[in-house]
Amino acid sequence: MASEPPPAPPAGDPAANTRRKPRSRRRRIATLVVLALALLLLLDQIGVRELSGRDFPQTDPLSPALRVHVEALAAPAWAGRVPGSEGNAAAARYLADSLAAAGVKPFPSLGGYLAPLAEPTSPLGHNVLGWIPPEGPGEPRGTVVLGAHFDHLGKTDEGLLLGADDNAAAVAVLLGAIPSLLAQHPRPYGIAVAFFNTEESPYFGTPRQGSQRFVAALPTEIGGLTSIRLAVVLDLIGGVVWRRTAETIFACGAEKTLGLPAIVDGVHEPGLDVRRLGIHAVENIPGYAPQPFSDYDVFRDHGVPFLFLSSGRTPRYHRASDLPDTLFYDRMARTSRWIASLVPALAAAPPALSFDPRGEDLAADRDTLRFAFDAAAKPWSSIPGTSPITAARILGDRSRLDAMAEPGHVWTPEDARSIERASFRLQCLLYRYPVCFTL
């Protein structure tokens, strides 16, 4: 026979009320926690959204010319400038014609602007090289290399990748700097304008990479690698997704050369915020071996002073959405003028820049990251897509960076690791990598 259920407690039974109260309290607490998290998610996105060049009208007189170059290089007809393709060859011819139109001559020893990636010819195409010889009294003081790659990926599973920011933007910025460079007299340095091919995978880091080929077969007018005063390499210089860094480019690698940080810090262009960041903070991904990102790597490997300029990856990196109308052309124009001002600043500096592969400037890294994290830690100015968990990690990053600014702080290896983790959290948020809180 089924047992009878226990009788219900009489109304107003104190014991039953006592049992119900903890359960009710837990439900209320859980509800409040869920509401608090939802509020954090909402607050995180108030006043912030992913930006692009569409949010910034063109006002700089140089911007239209830069856009013309980007639209030509990223035209669908050239299908992403894949090495070995007709689109890549057409882009190389366009760059050669652009150098000639700007008044830049080829290296006499090459007999033209196109330098094959292998001898006697290469099925992958050519680097495109121009030469602005030194001019004026006194002995020449070496060569400044201004470089950017022009190839891209083309057809992928993602669709047709045209590569406006990667890397037509950087090519356009260097072309934009040329008139000012040619107008400088005297010029104690020769200037090599190098548009590298085959930077993208699968060529990166191999002898087939365009910058590797350039270094392996320098034009005779340059001489040896020791004659290169500085290599300035640009990549991903046109994108923008966060208002805090809309006017900012990052100058990486100066810390490896004695005297170069002061030169970089001393060059100013109105409306452009150039902030130094150690190359270790770009390359040292937590949990992985250091990963170089662009054509500066071959110069560093050979002990050549280098400077890597970038505005950083955006969610459009290696995507079909990397199109000309997403770029911030006014900032690109200011970058062209900043580069043109950097070269005479080098001329005014002491003649020797000493490369130190162990060089670092953790104080500059700290200051650059504090500039970013002060805004990233505030819900109303955070990076689009910041989750509550990542926001908590950002608060920890900011606290550690602030501690590094205390008077009398003694730098430790753990500080360098904290800087690298904070830098990559910033980078992966700008790139919209989904698990930034794990870094």
Automatic annotation (TrEMBL):
Keyword Membrane applies: yes
InterPro entries: M28_fam, Peptidase_M28
Span list, region Disordered: 1-24
Biased composition (Pro residues): 1-12
This protein's record includes keyword Protein biosynthesis: no
Gene3D superfamilies: Zn peptidases
UniProtKB keywords: Membrane, Transmembrane, Transmembrane helix
The protein's name: M28 family peptidase
Domain Peptidase M28 per the UniProt entry, residue ranges: 127-342
Superkingdom: Bacteria
A single MF term (Gene Ontology): metalloexopeptidase activity
SUPFAM superfamilies hit by this protein: Zn-dependent exopeptidases
Signal peptide: none
Gene Ontology biological process terms, A to Z: proteolysis
Membrane-spanning residues: 29-48
